[in-house]
Amino acid sequence: MHKKILLVLLGWLQIMHIKAQNPVIRHIFTADPAPLVYHNTVYLYAGRDTATVDAKTYEMPSWHVFSSRNMVDWKDHGPVLKPTDFSWASRAANAAHCIERNGKFYWYISVMHKNTEVSKGGVAIGVAVSDNPTGPFKDAIGKALITNEMTTDMKHSWDDLDPAAFIDDDGQAYLFWGNGSCKWARLKENMIELDGPVHTFKPDHFTEAPWVYKRNDLYYLLYAANFPESIDYATATDIKGPWKYRGRVQDPVTNSTTTHPGVIDFKGKSYFFYHDGSMPTGSSYRRSIKVDYLRYNSDGTIRKIVETAK
Ligand code: FUB
């Protein structure tokens, strides 16, 4: 009997501990979480927000990596990658996603292209590579992997934002990205070249920030929807689609017009990462990464996640 009460208490304390930690990164402002589980450790890749308190635009000079073995204590490995590490890029550490393949870590990033003739003078996607999840990373190809010119329906200069990679059970890798519409393409096994055309589709209410994964043979596509952004999702039995809109994962967040999803399974639980502007002096341009549990209904749909206040 006592043992039972103790176990319930321990479970409750575990939940409270994680809740008490939100936002999980507090010593700097961070956005666009991209978690990765590797060797019993969670690596969290994120952009750093350094805008001043009254700023009305993003100031993002670098990407950091954080790691944790328990989802409570996080180590900051520093600004391991910067837009200026790409000779063809100028600034703006927009959303990025790092994925492991055969012991190498491929970090897909979206940045301002230096050449104003390229990507309508806007955002392009590049890829950095490392033998270690915390770096050092270097530009893998010395040029942009994706630019606006590669798609037939480019709408604006920041179309090519927010890359998210996914490797299917059969080893085929994909890159999803986009703003305004969602794009995807196959990646070659080397992870640094496209293997086919760029496809475009428009999930219901899609704004940006796709995140793709597979669970029980069902593909999930979470994304930032509407504006101010909520996180909505769609599912598909084939990664090529059609994607069926499934509704909302999380309502718009505290004090930030944007949010950004990242999902992992770690030690038997599913976690949902996002960002808001809830820290003191926080804002849409001074964001903080938070995490909450993600739970499924028996039919595979996602239970709506209420943002944790503390
Ligand atoms: O952090 C800059 C941009 O804001 C990201 O690329 C978007 O996903 C939004 O979070």
Automatic annotation (TrEMBL):
GO molecular function terms attached to this record: hydrolase activity
Hydrolase among keywords: yes
Key words of the record: Carbohydrate metabolism, Glycosidase, Hydrolase, Polysaccharide degradation, Xylan degradation
Pfam families attached to this UniProt entry: Glyco_hydro_43
Family matches, as CDD domains: GH43_Xsa43E-like
Bilayer-spanning residue ranges: none
Family under the similarity heading: Belongs to the glycosyl hydrolase 43 family.
Name of the protein in its database record: Glycoside hydrolase family 43 protein
Natural source organism: Niabella yanshanensis
